[in-house]
Design a protein that fits this description.
heterodimer, A: alpha/beta, 8-stranded mixed sheet, B: 12 helices, 12 strands
C-alpha cells in the first residue's frame, strides 16, 4: 500500500474569462519512508500540487489516497484524520510562524491539536527534544520567531513538523534564499532526519542538485504536468529534453565550457501551447509534438517519461 | 590578447556608523578589472559584496561612508571627483544591473522612454537617434524591439525584463558593468540564458564585468577570475580554474564543499558555526573561530593577501608563512 497516491489530479482556476490549468492530470505516488523530489520552475504548478496534497485546496478533478483510504470524498472527519498524519514546512518559514507566540508554543501546536492527552510536562519535553533534534537549543522555547535568522526559522518550522512524528512531511523550497553554508547544514539535517524518523518526505524544489542529495526518486513537472519521473540513480541519463536541460543547468559548477541553452521561457499558464507543452522550447521537437500531447509512459522500471522520443 | 586594466580598486574601505558601533562593511579591498573579462565577487550575505558595488559608484547609502582607498577608472580616481562629475560617470562609464529587474525600471513609464531618457541625459543626440539606438540595443540582447519598446516593465516576463535591464545598462557603452546578483530572481533555465547573454555581450563589446554573486555555479559559468570575500575582506582571489580547482583558503574550500554538485554523493561539509556579527568581528583573521585549520597566530593579526601561485593569492597564514601547498581537494574532484 502506498503512503500517498494521487490519480489524475487537476486544479483549474478561473480568472477573468481565462482558465489557468495550474495542475493538469498529475499521477503521483509515494511509498512509506520514501524521499520524493518534485522539481520544477516557477509557475510549473508544484506549489499548487503541494496545496492539493495537503488538502488545502480541493482538486478540480482526480482522487487522492492516503494509505489506501480515499481523501477527497467523505466528510470533514476524514480530512481531520489525515491532517494528523501530515505536516508541512513552507517556503516562507517566517510567515508560517506566528510572531506573537513563543517558539515553544509554536512547536507544541501539533501536539496540542492532535496529540494524545499528554500532560504539559510531556509536551514540553517533546518540544525541547524536537528543537534539539533540528540543531536549536532547548531554551529557545522561550524566545520568539523574530529573534532567529532565516535558516533557524526553517529549523523551527521543521521542529514543528517533526514533533508529532507524522508519517508524511511535505517541504516546499527548504533551501531557497539561504546562504550556501546554511543551506548545506539544512540539507545534512534533512538527510539525517530521513534515516532517523519514520516519515516519508516530499520535497518541492527548483534545485535539482539539492534533490539529488536528498531524494531517492525525482519527478520533474513542467507546465502543470509531470514530464519525467526517475530514480536518482538514473538521473544522469534522463530521457526528457527538459530534464536534460535542467541537468545541464545544474552541472555548470565544474563544467563551464558547455552551455546548454534552452530557448524561450516557460509558457503562460492561461494559454498553453497545443500538443506537448514543452515543444516551443524543445531542441528536438518534431511535427507530431505540435499536434499531440505525449503521455507519461513507463520506459523502464521506475522510470516514466512523457516524450515521443523516449523509449 | 594583452590585458587592459579598466578599473583599479586599491584598499577600498567603507564603514557604517551605526548607533551600536562602527560596521566595517568593506575593509581594504583591492582588485583590478580587465577589459572583456569577468571578475566574480563571491560571498555570503553580509560579506560586503553589494556595499563594494555601491562604493565603486559612490552610491553608499547613509550612514555609510567610504573611508579610504582608491577607485581608479583608467587614470581617474573616482573617489576624488566632484559630485557633478561623478554623475556623468554613472550610467555612462559605469553601469549597474540589480538583482530585481523591476527595480531598474520606473513602473509607470514605458521601457522605450526610459532608454531614450537615459541616452538623452548623457549623449548630445536627437530623440529620433536615441530611439534608433534603443531599438538596436533591444534587438542586440535578443528581444523583440518593437514590442518591448512600447511595453511597461510589468508587462514583460522576468527573463525579458532582465535582458532589457542588460540592454539599458549597456546602452551607453560603459567601460564597466556591475551586475549585482543578476540571476537570483530567475528560474534555472532562464539563469543560463541571462548568463549566456552577459557572456556574449562581454565578448562582443568593450567593457569589463564585475559579477556579484553568492552562486558558485553562476560564477563558474562566466567568470574568468574570482575573488572570495568574507567579512569585508578578500580572502582568496585568482583565475577561476585555480581558485575553484585548488582552493587554498579554508573558507573557499568550505564553500565549495557546501555545494551539492561538488563531489556528488559525498556528505556536504559546510562551515561550522554562525557568520560573525559585523559589529564584533573577531580579532585577527575574521574566519578563525570557524576555521578547521586555525593556528595560534590567526587570532592576533589578519593575514595579508599574498601570492600563492601565479595570479592566485590567498590571505591565510597556513600558506603565507608555512608554505603548505594544498588542503587536499584534488581527490574530491577526481
Amino acid at each position: 500500500m502506498n503512503l500517498l497516491e494521487g490519480h489524475g489530479l487537476r486544479k483549474y482556476y478561473h480568472r477573468r474569462g481565462y482558465q489557468i490549468q495550474a495542475v493538469d492530470g498529475v499521477d503521483i505516488s509515494m511509498k512509506e519512508h520514501e524521499a520524493l523530489g518534485l522539481v520544477g520552475e516557477s509557475g510549473s504548478g508544484k506549489s499548487t500540487l503541494m496545496r492539493l496534497l495537503l488538502l488545502l485546496e480541493r482538486p478540480s478533478a482526480g482522487d487522492l489516497y492516503f494509505r489506501g483510504g480515499k481523501l477527497n470524498s467523505g466528510g470533514a472527519q476524514r480530512w481531520s484524520h489525515f491532517r494528523r498524519e501530515v505536516q508541512a514546512v513552507f517556503q516562507d518559514a517566517a510567515a508560517s510562524l506566528n510572531p506573537r507566540l513563543s517558539v515553544g508554543r509554536i512547536v507544541a501546536e501539533p501536539l496540542l491539536n492532535f496529540g494524545p492527552e499528554l500532560g504539559s510536562h510531556r509536551i514540553d519535553e517533546r518540544v525541547a527534544a524536537a528543537l534539539e533534534r533540528v540543531g536549536l537549543q532547548r531554551d529557545d522555547r522561550r524566545r520568539y520567531p523574530h529573534e532567529f535568522s532565516g535558516g533557524q526559522q526553517r529549523r523551527i518550522a521543521l521542529a514543528r513538523a517533526l514533533v508529532a512524528d507524522p508519517p508524511l512531511i511535505l517541504c516546499d523550497e527548504i533551501t531557497s534564499g539561504l546562504d550556501l553554508s546554511v543551506q548545506a547544514k539544512l540539507l545534512n539535517l534533512f538527510r539525517d532526519l530521513q534515516e532517523e524518523s519514520r516519515a516519508g518526505f516530499l520535497f518541492i524544489s527548483h534545485d535539482l542538485g539539492a534533490m539529488r542529495y536528498l531524494c531517492s526518486r525525482v519527478a520533474v513537472i513542467y507546465a502543470g504536468k509531470i514530464v519525467e519521473e526517475l530514480p536518482v540513480s538514473s538521473l544522469e541519463q534522463p530521457l526528457h529534453p527538459y530534464t536534460q536541460a535542467l541537468l545541464a543547468a545544474e552541472a555548470q559548477l565544474f563544467a563551464p565550457s558547455e552551455m546548454y541553452l534552452l530557448e524561450g521561457e516557460p509558457p503562460d499558464p492561461a494559454a498553453y501551447p497545443a500538443g506537448c507543452r514543452f515543444h516551443p522550447r524543445c531542441p528536438i521537437r518534431m511535427k507530431r509534438c505540435t499536434e499531440e500531447s505525449p503521455r507519461l509512459t513507463t520506459v523502464r522500471v521506475g522510470h516514466r517519461a512523457a516524450c515521443f522520443t523516449a523509449h | 590578447m594583452p590585458q587592459r586594466t579598466v578599473l583599479h580598486v586599491k584598499g577600498l574601505s567603507t564603514s557604517f556608523n551605526t548607533p551600536e558601533g562602527i560596521v566595517r562593511a568593506v575593509d581594504g579591498i583591492s582588485f583590478t578589472l580587465q577589459q572583456n573579462r569577468c571578475l566574480a565577487l563571491i560571498g555570503e550575505s553580509g560579506a560586503g559584496k553589494s556595499v563594494t558595488a555601491l562604493s565603486l559608484l559612490r552610491l553608499v547609502p547613509v550612514p555609510g561612508k567610504i573611508t579610504g582607498g582608491q577607485v581608479c577608472l583608467e587614470d581617474c580616481d573616482l573617489l576624488k571627483l566632484p559630485t557633478a562629475a561623478m554623475r556623468t560617470i554613472r550610467g555612462k562609464e559605469m553601469a549597474l544591473i540589480f538583482q530585481d529587474p523591476l527595480a531598474s525600471f520606473n513602473p509607470v513609464i514605458t521601457v522605450g522612454s526610459q532608454f531614450v531618457e537615459t541616452i538623452l541625459t548623457h549623449e548630445p543626440v536627437s530623440k529620433a537617434t536615441a530611439r534608433k539606438m534603443t531599438f538596436a540595443k533591444l534587438t542586440g540582447v535578443g528581444l523583440p524591439a518593437e514590442q518591448v519598446y512600447h511595453s511597461y516593465p510589468f508587462q514583460l516576463s522576468g527573463g525579458m525584463r532582465q535582458r532589457a535591464a542588460i540592454a539599458l545598462a549597456l546602452a551607453l557603452q560603459p567601460r564597466v558593468l556591475i551586475a549585482d546578483e543578476p540571476i537570483s530572481f530567475l528560474d534555472v533555465t532562464l539563469q543560463l540564458q541571462i548568463l549566456g547573454e552577459l557572456k556574449r555581450q562581454l565578448e562582443e563589446n568593450r567593457f569589463t564585468l564585475l559579477l556579484i554573486t553568492h552562486d558558485l555555479a553562476a560564477a563558474s559559468t562566466i567568470a574568468d577570475d574570482v575573488a572570495v570575500i568574507y567579512a569585508g575582506r578578500i580572502v582568496e582571489q585568482g583565475p577561476l580554474q585555480q581558485v575553484f580547482g585548488r582552493p587554498k583558503h579554508p573558507y573557499t574550500n568550505a564553500l565549495l564543499r557546501s555545494h551539492p554538485s561538488f563531489g556528488r554523493g559525498r556528505r556536504l561539509e559546510p562551515v561550522e558555526g554562525p557568520s560573525p556579527s559585523p559589529l564584533h568581528l573577531p580579532a585577527g583573521c575574521a574566519f578563525h573561530p570557524r576555521c578547521p585549520e586555525m593556528l595560534p597566530c590567526c587570532c592576533n593579526a589578519a593575514p595579508e593577501l599574498l601570492g600563492a601561485a601565479g595570479e592566485h593569492r590567498v590571505a591565510c597564514y597556513r600558506f603565507n608563512t608555512l608554505g603548505i601547498k594544498s588542503i587536499g581537494t584534488e581527490a574530491v574532484r577526481a
